[in-house]
Amino acid sequence: MARGRFILLEGCDRAGKSTQCAMLVAALKEKGYAVELCKFPERTTTIGQMINAYLTNAKELDDQAIHLLFSANRWEAMQAMKNKLREGVHLVVDRYAYSGVAFSAAKGLDLTWCKNPDRGLVRPDLTFFLDLPTSEAEKRGGFGEERYEKRELQEKVRHLFHELKGKEWVMVDARSSVQAMHETILKTALDKIQEAQNEAQSGELLE
Ligand code: 2DT
Ligand code: MG
Fold this sequence. Notes:
By secondary structure, the protein is α/β, with parallel strands linked by helices. It contains 8 helices and 5 strands. It has a 5-stranded parallel beta sheet with strand order 2-3-1-4-5, sandwiched between helices. α4 (97-106) crosses α7. The chain binds 3'-deoxythymidine-5'-monophosphate and magnesium ion. 3'-deoxythymidine-5'-monophosphate is lined by residues 40-41, 55, 70, 95, 99-100, 103, 148.
């Protein structure tokens, strides 16, 4: 059996990541695939509750301390994610280490320092980047409710995402319609899943 694929959606705030993740999970399920949604920060764990308190301005933390909590929140999910992938379950993931680095570095922390705690995390097989100009993000509902939803910081975060992006990232213009974005994301994800199944089959022939 082919290992599950790790499909990541990253991007600016209000770009539609959560909507697209939900639509992708639903579409893959409908096609009969085993698929689960993961979201970072995962606010339900003990570490996640500390992160939530920070983001909702209920608690103050040093920039370094919150950075490490975001990373620890990924590490505490790692074994379960690896097990799922091994079982052939596809994971659709809403934000990951790139958000971790982009947001903390945008606050002024050293880029290499920011990257270090996440080294060794399982690597995504496919990364979509939902790009949205900050001026557009601001117009969308809910912007400004949480700690990081401020124009100046968001501009820096967007700039850092563009610095971090790998050649293999799939760029999605988040000004497009929800349906158009979904169609692009679904098609690319299905191609990636099919590629994995073909690889697994050719492996079997050689055994
Ligand atoms: P959501 O709005 O998607 O719940 O994110 N963030 C996220 C970080 O600063 N570091 C991280 O490692 C992650 C995963 C981005 C809440 C905010 O948390 C930021 C927005
Ligand atoms: Mg948010």
